[in-house]
């Protein structure tokens, strides 16, 4: 797939509906330190982009992983035509046609109808080049620095340098992003304007230094074309200068070529051979693009070529890798298992970065932006670590250090609730997190799964005693199963269940959902959960009830209709809310109870929602998590239990896909009779031999070979043996 075929409408109508401004149309290279987008209305906080708005406030350098988390270290550049000192206006914003603009991974391009300026932005890992063509005199640009800013202009070198300090939250309130910008044209000092949001335009004749809050600086240049070369650094002004020098070793055309090559490097690892399903192919690569955006680099290469980062707790520059902008509650079940197949070398570097976070904060990260935010339940980086350990992607030293870090979070409750497990001591005391803690059911289930993950890592590290201890704790989910209602429920410290339970109520022990969305998250022991219901058949009937119940909800503890409720109703798949992360695995649970035909039917229908059902993602696309669900499901398998090394089979979407793997190996996925009316898989083959298991292993995929699925109008009649069913502790 060539990058030119990526959906350049990204950011207009095709990827947005309802509240999905969290899926920003970001331009950059994979895993960049900075991304760029268009800002329509900065007054809307994290919702500064509207795909249908024509207002253009500037090209925004952004680090926002989610509108609910907020941005940090942002700045804006707006090319303008303006009579300096004559036309005194407060609102410099331009306007553009979003349908005519280009939003692609490798460039942003638009024509400002107000100023009559055509601009193209080409990104790099640490900066960008902004090329502007002006149709009038008084050519220039406005630099907007929200928060505290400090700016120097050096006319001799045509350079603007400084820093900006704006953060939604950070351990270091003085955390700065340094920047350096160089123009190709000379600056007109007599025309330079400065201002702030309190006093938008103030004459600043001959000034070359500005400092203050919410700076808005207008710089004017000679000539009618101009390139702005921008680079940033979280380390120092000197590092920003070094990053700029490295970027300037390439021409603008070469920078574009490099950006395309950076994306193509990863896109070429998945080769789709399908001439009939063009829209599905396009959707696949658009979601694949989104998947490769997060987490972001938070390190830079020093003059010695070695990685360095800024430690916000120590307020110092330190050596080593570091990554940011990731919530593991969202991403552990799709993003990182996918990387383990397609980009294991990048995954290993990320894991080194997460170890850096542990060494500097004392706890493994949970939600980074730029440092620990402590949002969402659980410590689900444990799953990322266990999955990597089960696949032999960690060194012995890394394995042991990760094990110590995981066990610390499981046994030592931090005084700062951002770090580690919330309610750790109560979980250890009662075997569950009591209802005196918010989201107690989700915490209990996540901790039990994390205990399983610790057992996996301990077993890999040769600690059989520790593995047995935590495998036993992984069954703690049973402590909150209520046989009278058939649900996992909030429980008080005295051992009684919370009163007034209603299955459709959101909150009250559950996260962004009700018990229907959150009460089946026992990834490590689906067989055991089925036994709580009386066996596989009873559990199957419960799952059938889940998907056939009306898409109804009660606002419950939230007190009002939050967007996840709206999305559940809009998706209208019963209580299966693929619109949010807790439901991602639910379609695949049918395979655990010997009903793979239900998994196949649901996955095929849900994948179609990405193409025809909505203008874009059918819900929250957080840090590549939903994109990852689609990518994996479209390939025909899904990692229900990261740490097990298993990928449960579903319904492949394409005629043929070739996964180009490390060590020059290829795994070819072929789908026969791939027609819309064929809703079921009738047979599988692995390397020409009949394949009757319900899952593929990581080893089978990475060994290379050919896996074939034959589709048909009716499901296959094969019934799985226990050995052919996916992993569960209770098996």
Layout: helices, strands, pairs:
Elements: E1 35-39, E2 55-56, E3 58-62, E4 75-81, E5 94-95, E6 102-104, E7 107-112, E8 117-123, E9 127-134, E10 139-154, E11 159-165, E12 177-183, E13 193-196, E14 202-203, E15 209-220, E16 225-233, H1 237-247, H2 252-267, E17 270-272, H3 278-291, E18 296-297, E19 299-301, E20 307-311, E21 316-319, E22 323-324, E23 326-327, H4 328-331, H5 335-342, H6 344-361, E24 367-368, H7 381-390, H8 396-411, H9 424-430, H10 440-460, H11 464-473, E25 481-482, E26 487-488, H12 515-518, H13 526-532, H14 536-548, H15 563-571, H16 596-613, H17 625-635, E27 637-638, E28 646-649, E29 656-661, E30 665-672, E31 680-686, E32 689-691, E33 695-697, H18 698-702, E34 705-712
Parallel strand pairs: 30-34
Antiparallel strand pairs: 1-3, 2-5, 3-4, 4-10, 6-7, 7-8, 8-9, 9-16, 10-11, 10-15, 11-12, 12-16, 13-14, 13-15, 17-29, 18-22, 19-20, 20-21, 23-24, 25-26, 27-28, 28-33, 29-30, 31-32, 31-34
Helix pairs in contact: 3-17, 5-6, 7-10, 8-10, 10-11, 13-14
Uncertain segments are 1-21, 200-205
Q: Give the CA-based shape.
A: globular
Q: What is the class of the domain at 3-265 in the CATH system?
A: Mainly Beta
Number of strands: 34
Helicity range:
25-40%
Radius of gyration: 26 Å
Instruction: Estimate the mean pLDDT confidence.
Output: 92
Oligomer: single chain
Q: Strand count, sense and closure of the main sheet?
A: 14 strands, antiparallel
In CATH terms, what is the architecture of the domain at 3-265? Answer: Distorted Sandwich
Name the beta content range.
Answer: 15-25%
Cα distance spanning the termini? 42 Å
With helices defined by DSSP (H or I, 4 residues minimum), what is the helix count?
Answer: 18
Classify the fold: give the CATH topology of the domain at 3-265.
Answer: Beta-galactosidase, Chain A, domain 5
- SS content category: alpha+beta
């Amino acid at each position: 797939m060539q990058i030119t075929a990526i959906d350049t409408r990204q950011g207009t109508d095709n990827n947005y509906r309802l509240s999905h401004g969290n899926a920003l149309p970001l331009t950059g290279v994979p895993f960049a330190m900075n991304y760029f987008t268009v800002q329509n209305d900065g007054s809307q906080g994290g919702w500064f982009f509207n795909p249908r708005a024509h207002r253009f406030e500037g090209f925004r350098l952004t680090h926002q992983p989610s509108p609910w988390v907020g941005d940090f270290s942002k700045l804006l550049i707006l090319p303008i035509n303006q009579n300096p000192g004559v036309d005194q206006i407060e609102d410099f914003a331009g306007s553009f046609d979003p349908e005519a603009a280009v939003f692609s991974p490798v460039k942003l391009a638009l024509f400002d109808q107000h100023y009559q300026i055509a601009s193209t932005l080409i990104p790099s890992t640490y900066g960008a080049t902004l090329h502007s063509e002006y149709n009038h005199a008084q050519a220039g640009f406005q630099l907007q620095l929200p928060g505290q800013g400090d700016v120097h202009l050096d006319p001799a070198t045509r350079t603007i340098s400084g820093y900006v300090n704006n953060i939604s939250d950070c351990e270091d309130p003085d955390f700065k992003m340094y920047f350096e910008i160089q123009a190709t044209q000379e600056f007109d000092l007599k025309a330079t304007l400065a201002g702030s949001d309190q006093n938008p335009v103030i004459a600043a004749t001959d000034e070359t230094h500005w400092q203050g809050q919410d700076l808005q600086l207008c710089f004017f240049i000679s000539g009618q074309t101009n390139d702005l070369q921008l680079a940033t650094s979280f380390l120092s002004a000197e590092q920003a200068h070094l990053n700029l020098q490295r970027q300037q070793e390439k021409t603008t055309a070469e920078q574009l070529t490099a950006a395309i090559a950076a994306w193509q490097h990863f896109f070429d690892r998945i080769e789709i051979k399908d001439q009939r399903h063009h829209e599905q192919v396009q959707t696949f690569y658009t979601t694949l693009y989104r998947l490769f955006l997060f987490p972001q680099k938070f390190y830079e290469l020093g003059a010695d070529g070695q990685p360095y980062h800024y430690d916000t707790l120590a307020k110092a520059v330190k050596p080593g890798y570091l990554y940011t902008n990731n919530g593991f509650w969202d991403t552990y079940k799709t993003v990182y298992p996918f990387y383990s197949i397609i980009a294991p070398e990048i995954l290993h570097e990320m894991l080194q970065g997460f170890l850096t976070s542990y060494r500097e904060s004392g706890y493994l990260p949970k939600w980074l932006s730029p440092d620990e935010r402590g949002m969402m339940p659980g410590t689900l980086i444990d799953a990322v670590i266990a999955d990597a350990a089960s696949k032999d992607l960690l060194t012995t030293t890394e394995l042991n250090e990760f094990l110590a870090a995981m066990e610390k979070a499981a046994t030592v409750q931090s005084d700062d609730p951002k770090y580690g497990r919330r309610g750790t001591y109560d979980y250890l005391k009662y075997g569950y997190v009591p209802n005196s803690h918010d989201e107690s059911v989700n915490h209990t289930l996540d901790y039990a799964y994390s205990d399983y993950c610790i057992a996996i890592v301990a077993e890999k590290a040769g600690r059989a005693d520790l593995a047995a201890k935590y495998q036993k704790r992984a069954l703690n989910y049973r402590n909150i199963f209520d046989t009278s209602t058939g649900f996992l429920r909030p429980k008080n410290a005295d051992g009684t269940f919370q009163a007034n339970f209603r299955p459709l109520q959101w909150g009250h022990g559950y996260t962004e959902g009700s018990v229907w969305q959150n009460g089946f998250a026992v990834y490590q022991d689906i067989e055991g959960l089925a036994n709580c219901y009386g066996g596989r058949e009873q559990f199957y009937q419960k799952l059938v009830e889940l998907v056939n119940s009306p898409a109804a909800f009660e606002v419950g503890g939230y007190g009002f209709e939050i967007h996840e409720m709206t999305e559940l109703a809009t998706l209208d798949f019963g209580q299966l809310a693929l619109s949010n992360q807790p439901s991602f695995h639910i379609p695949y649970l049918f395979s655990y109870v010997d009903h793979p035909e239900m998994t196949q039917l649901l996955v095929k229908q849900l994948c179609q929602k990405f193409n025809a059902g909505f203008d874009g993602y059918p819900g929250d696309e957080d840090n590549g998590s939903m994109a990852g669900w689609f990518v994996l499901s479209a390939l025909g398998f899904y990692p229900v239990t990261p740490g097990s090394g298993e990928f449960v089979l579903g319904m492949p979407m394409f005629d043929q896909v070739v996964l180009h793997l490390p060590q020059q190996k290829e795994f070819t996925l072929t789908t026969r009779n791939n027609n819309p009316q064929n809703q079921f898989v009738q047979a599988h083959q692995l390397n020409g031999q009949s394949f009757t298991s319900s899952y593929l292993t990581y080893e089978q995929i990475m060994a290379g070979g050919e896996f074939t699925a034959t589709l048909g109008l009716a499901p296959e009649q094969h019934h799985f043996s226990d050995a052919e069913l996916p992993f569960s502790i209770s098996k």
